[in-house]
Structures are given as C-alpha cells and as structure tokens.
Amino acid sequence: MSEQKLQSQTVQTTGHAWDGDLQEYNNPLPVWWVYTFYATVVFALVYWTIYPSWPFGKGWIGGVSNITYVNSEGETRTHSWNTRALLMTDMNQAAVAQKPYFDKVAAMPYEQIAQDPDMSGFIISAGKSLFAENCAACHQAGGQGVIGFFPNLTDDDWLYGGSYEKIHETLLGGRRGYMPAFSEVLNGEQIDQLANYVASLSGIGHDADKATAGDVLFHSETAACFYCHTSDATGRQDMGAPNLTDNIWLWADVPAASTAEGKVAAIRGVISGGLNKGVMPAWSGRLTPEQIKVLTVYVHELGGGQ
Amino acid sequence: MQTGLEDQLGLYQKRIPIFTRSVKGRFRRFKTSVLVLAYAIYFLLPWLPWSRLDAPAQAVLFDLPGRRFLIFGLTVYPQDVIWLALLLFIAAILLFFVTGLVGRAFCGYFCFQTLWTDFFIWIEHKVQGERPARVRLYRQPWDREKVLKVGGTHALWLLASLWTGLTFIFYFAYAPQLLVDFFTGQAAAAAYITVGILTLSTYVAAGLMREQICTYVCPYGRFQSVMYEPETLAVHYDARRGEAAHGRAAARAGQRTLAERHEKGLGDCVDCGLCVQVCPVGIDIRDGLQYKCISCGLCIDACNTIMDSFNFPRGLIRYDSERNLASPTPAAPTLKWKRLKTIGYGVALVLMSTYLVYSVATRGNFDRAVNQIRQPLYVVLSNGDIRNRYQIRITNKASQEQTYVISARGIPAAALDLGNFSEVTIKSGHSALVQASVRLPPVVAAQTQQFELIITPLGKSAEARTENVRFDAPGKRP
C-alpha cells in the first residue's frame, strides 16, 4: 500500500523555472492549518469590535461592549468593557451581599451579636479580614501582640477595660500610654528596690529586703507609684495603668528572662526609662462605624472580654 | 538508513471512508444489548423522579450551586472527594484488569466513542442502506437522491448529538424545567455553551472522525501492548488454519469442501473479505493483532457466518491467546487468570471497592474539623493559668437540621469554655464555626499533652465523634 502511495506522490513545484532548470519546491501548509489560521483572523476582527483594542489618539478604541457599574462614590458609570469596571462590579456585588449583615451589626446590641450563631460566623470571618488588614501590623495576625511593643489581645487582661463599650472607645479614639522615666527622680538603688517589690507582687524570685524597702518607696510621695498603679498595685483602667500583681507582662519582657535577676533587671529597665510609646491610633474616620463595631466584637471574643 | 514511513508519506494521511457491512451474531447481539442498556441509563436517568424534601424530585442531580451531588438516597458533598478518587482508581484498575484478561473489551463494547459511532452507523445504515448502496451513493454525483439521503443522515446525527448534549446538562438541573427553559431561551449561558460544545463534539467524533479518534486521538490503543500478555485473550485470526501451506483461496469449484482444500494445501479462509467489510476501524484482522483493533468481535461474527454456510468449523477468527496460537498443539481457548499481574489488579480492585462501599455505608451524618489556633499557641492569663483556643467546624450532612453538643474528656469539665454557644444548631448541608477555649492551671497544663473533644448530635449519642486535640503550654516540648 505504502509503496504505491509513494510512487503516485510527486513533489509539487511553484511552477517557476529560473536559469532554465532551477525550480522551487512547493510544500503547502495543511488545509486544516490554513483554515484554523483564517478562523483566528476572523476571531480577532470580532474581538476588536467587541472589546477595547487599539490605542487611538489619547485614548483607545473601546469596542461595542459596555459595562455599567457603581463607583465608590455611589455614581452609576457606563464604560466600555474593561477589567477595572469588572472588578468594581464584583466589589459592589460583594458589598451588596455584605450589607444586610453590616446593617444587622449596626442595629443589634453587642451581646446579641455575639450570641446569634449566624452573626457570630460573620464576625469571625469579616472580623478576621478586617483585623488582618488594619490591626495585625502591630497586634500580629492572631492578636497575640509583641512584648515590649504591642499588647496581647488574646489574654484576659485589658489595660483600658475589656467591656464592649471600652474596646469600642479604644478603637474609636485610640489610646496613649505614658509612664515617666524614674531615673530622673530616683537613684539606682531605689529603682532596684522598686523592681524587686514589683517582682514580689507577681511571685517572681526577688530579694526580700529590697522588696520591703520598695514597698515603702512604692507608697511614698517620693516615687508616687500608687498614684497611677493604686495602692494595692492593681492598676487603673481609666488611664491604662497596668495591674502589677498579675502574670501578664507587656513592657518588661519578664517571660523571656530565664533567671530571677534577669526578670528583675527587665522590670528595672522599664522603671528607670519610663514609657512613651504605648500609642494606639484612632480608627474613627478610617473605618466605618459598622466595621469598628465588627472589630469590637471580634477583639472582645479573642480574649473572652471582660 | 531507511527513512521512516511517516517521513515519506507526510504526517497527514487522508481518511479513507469506511462503509461497514452489518452482521449478525453473538458479538453483534452483545454490542447491541450494551448499547441499548447504556443509552437507556444515560438518556432516561435524568427523568427518573425521586422525592426529596429540600431539592427537586430528580433521582440523579448534580446541584453545583448548592455544592452537592444528589444520587438517589445519597447526598455527596465536595468534602467526599475521596470517593471520587476511589472511583477513578477503581475504574483505572478495572480497565487494566480486564485488558490483561480479555484485551480491549472496554474499547469494543463499552467505550462511548464506540457506542455513539455504532449508533451513528446504524442511522446511516437505516437512511442510506447496506454497504454496497452506501458505496454507490458515495461515488454518485451530488444529485437529488444523494443530497436527500446524505443530508438526512447528517440531520439525524445532529439531532442525536443535540439530545446527547441536552441530556448531559439535564443532570445538573431539574430536567423538565431545564428543557422548557432551554427552548424558551431562559436557561443559563453555561447550558447553551455546554450543549453547543457537546453537540458539536459528538457530531464530529461519532459522525465524521469515528475510528480516527481511536487511532490518532485516544492514547489507549497505543499502550495496549504493555497491558497485553501472551495469555491475554484477544481477537485473533488463526493463520495456521486459515493459510495452511499455500495460503487462503476463494471457494471455487474443486476447492469447496474442507477435504478438497486440505488436499491442495489451501487454508480454511475462503478470502471472502467479509471480516474486513464489517470492521468499524477498517483493518484486516488477518494481518495479525494491531493497535487499531478495538476488539469489537464483529469480524468473528462475520467469519462464523461464512464458516457456517460452508459447513466449516467455526472459530477461524476467535478470541484466543498468543501463547495458545503459537503452541504446537493448540488447546481450546480458555480464560487464564493465574498470573501475578492479573491477581495483583484483582486484589487491588477488591480492596478498593470494599473500602469505597464501606466508606459510603458508614459515613457519618456530619463532618468535623478541629483546629488549634496557633497564633498564639497558648496564652498566659493574669492568674498564671494557660489557655489554648480551638476552632471547631461542623458540617451537617444529614437531610435535616441538627443540634450538636460539644464536650471534653481528659480535662476538668469547667476548663472547656465554648463562649456563647453551649450547643450549635446547623441547617442541612450547612456548616458552622465554634470557638472553644480551654483554660488549665499551670500544674495541670504541664501534665496535659492532649485531650479529647467529643461532638455529639443531640439525641443521637451513638453518632458521637471524638477528636484528639493537643494542649500547649510554655516550656513544653512536643
């Protein structure tokens, strides 16, 4: 079969003859290939008509396909088809789908939101993405904070109060924590005594004599620690003065130190240097009231609230 | 050096039209019954009613928007993708198993390409007549008769293709409604696109390309050689009997009976060519086993018909093994399965099928996933207690709403805090997230490596499921 075929197949030439006998082979493209090529040409022409294609003057040829979307200002715009308009349409659809939930959040009291299983699911997912976008830069993705810089939101200690109202207040107006540097008014020995006293409050290894002296100093007008931390050292939430008697450490990295001396030294550092970096920015104006409310409930649930 | 045949001929070979002759026999009957059965299932299944509370009354419905697959009484969710994996594995192993035993039985009798081509040839036969009539029509100029007959054939093919495409989409929505929507222009764009593509591909594959799909497109024929073994039963021409010493010859006067032929040294093959005429892939089985053969058995039927008419014994073309044919004393062909490969495939097949059935039969009515929150792994609380938090996702796979109760074992009862939800009620097919936290005093925390969370459907304590959960504390090494 194949031999017969070979004999019958003569090689085509283009038909020209140069210099008498110089000929050129003609190997035409397969027919299916040629028609596919024509089909792509037709496709391109159709595409150019429908979609944006060629640059033209300062703009471009838009094509006959239009897309209507609502922009962020709420204006309805009609534009020749483009992926940005498509994105705006999708964003609007998502916003429309979320709106009933945000409306519910706005209308419901905090406790009711937290106890509604449907809303609770929304808070977990919407709160998580809002938190990741706005809060996680400082408080970290899980809200665990960084000792020495940003408070842990997952524990049960709240510097400024852990009720829904207080968390909401913190989010809206921000916070500024301040502690003066006591190296200006106290000598090194006094600071060491105070540090040992503070360590004793949390049951950390300390020098008992120094701690007793620190106790006196703590409650004296010289150091006046009790002004802010109160006389039983449990702190004042209205000014963000922390409770010194618990196991939570934000500024002094006590958990990281392995020895009792190291832990006391960490406390000493905070007393002598003071603090002026406990700044939480205000979020009113940056986030919508509904978003702040979602975050309030989300943050409340992180640590179980108060 | 010899140049390859493809280099000499070019890569493109023009199709030689094949006009198959119809034939009667065992294999034809088997093929027809498989075709009727397969078509009955494919085309009628979407119309089978099945009453359901929360879904259209359709026995088999792939509810993509609802993320579920309703198959009779079973609801399959995307989480059950392991079943699909098992099913594909079983299908693949079954293919290897059967091919090792009886060759390309799938190609010849069950493949949809074969089924649809067979059906399209049947249409062609009904409209244009038997093989000689079709050949005549093919050679005839384009007159009124040819236009009508060929046009009619193609029109019927397109109709069959359209209904094939339509039936496919009927599996994805309530069929009676979708049929009306489709023809009133109200169905989704995806429906029209799917039907369009399937209509076109069915028409092209079963009407125009036919055996070229098997020869050039499908990879299966190309790797049949690694699946075949010497013991594999396949459609073979018994060349020793058919050709004898002086080859095949027509049954002319003087060489009509077996005795006369054997005396002249002629084979039993009377060279009638019927085996070639009935072949849907256009090969001559007498050239031996070849990659184009889909082993449909029609040449066996054709040859047996001729052998019967000459009163020759049947089986000049038959299912036989290479080993048996080559042996000096061929025995009657039998199915030989005692081979490592066949037994291996068989065992894998049984194991996986058992596992699939077991998995479907004993699946729980809910799915659960307990994730420990790892940022942070643990929290030290103000009194020194250690807290770990967990996210529990429960998916209700039962057909009605269900309430679930979560409890813990291995830790003090008061240590588990489920926040605002002591129990959670979930709608059918939905899932819910529960945040749980466990708080342990440092001494207990140091001793607790893990504990158990128990999820119990309310009122069905037998269906309770237990999850082992880690508990992390500072200074503890995993």
What are the SSEs and their pairings?
The complex is a heterodimer of chains A (306) and B (478).
Chain A: H1 2-8, H2 31-50, E1 55-56, E2 59-60, E3 66-70, E4 76-80, H3 83-107, H4 110-115, H5 117-134, H6 136-139, H7 164-173, E5 175-179, H8 188-201, H9 208-218, H10 226-229, H11 260-273, E6 275-280, H12 289-303
Antiparallel strand pairs in A: 1-2, 3-4, 5-6
Helix pairs in contact in A: 3-12, 5-12, 7-12, 8-9, 8-11
Chain B: H1 5-9, H2 26-44, E1 60-63, E2 68-71, E3 74-76, H3 81-102, H4 105-110, H5 112-128, H6 131-139, H7 144-170, H8 175-183, H9 189-209, H10 211-217, H11 224-227, E4 233-237, H12 239-243, H13 258-264, H14 274-277, H15 298-309, E5 317-321, H16 322-326, H17 340-361, E6 366-372, E7 379-380, E8 386-396, E9 402-409, E10 416-417, E11 423-426, E12 431-440, H18 442-447, E13 450-457, E14 465-470
Antiparallel strand pairs in B: 1-2, 2-3, 4-5, 6-8, 7-8, 8-12, 9-11, 9-13, 10-12, 13-14
Helix pairs in contact in B: 3-17, 5-7, 5-9, 7-8, 7-9
